[in-house]
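User: Could you check the structure of this?
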Amino acid sequence: MLGIDPLYWMMMIPVFILSMAASFKVKSTFNKYAKVSSRSGKTGAQVAGEILSRNGLSNVSVTETTGFLTDHYDPIKRVVRLSPDVFNGNSISALGVAAHETGHAIQHAKSYGPLMLRNTFVPVASIGSGLSWIVMMAGFMLNMMNLITLGIILFSAVVFFQLITLPVEFNASGRAKEILSSYGIVSQAELAGVQKVLSAAALTYVAAAVSSIVTLIYFLLRAGFLGRRDD
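Assistant: Sure, the predicted structure tokens are below.
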């Protein structure tokens, strides 16, 4: 159905463009400020360690992981994992990303509501992501409304997960900027670069949320929940 449905492509092509633009923006912005060394000379690993220490999070470790922009906080193992460019780098990009990821560790320690909700919802979203398309496609091919409805419900879990991710990421970036400034790790001029790096990164989460919402609307339209079903 998807490959030959004009409505699907009419709705999704703008979303694909947005996603590609967001990906290009974050990579180009990161690379731009990766060439700008910070005044402090501290690496991302050192900054992450300092932030964790000053917030009493001795139970959270900082390790290096592989890949490019693969940085993340693992709430289960309580580990801030930084990509090589961030872990070893002393650039504006490295410090911004490192502070952002430690912002998630601080959220976890303070039981920040949206983060707690997102962590709780991970298993549900994983199931929805893995099964929703299969169930919906089977429902459309077999013309079984119950299967279509189940698939939409499962995919709605993915949409909800994407939406609750937004405040988590925005809050972590806000914490990162405030900490880097208040701790004197970056100057006000350097903070402007951090802002650009984190804002670019936020676009990828916005694009993912928009993509999931538009996809859900498409299936609601095709199922007849929004307007008349097109058989």
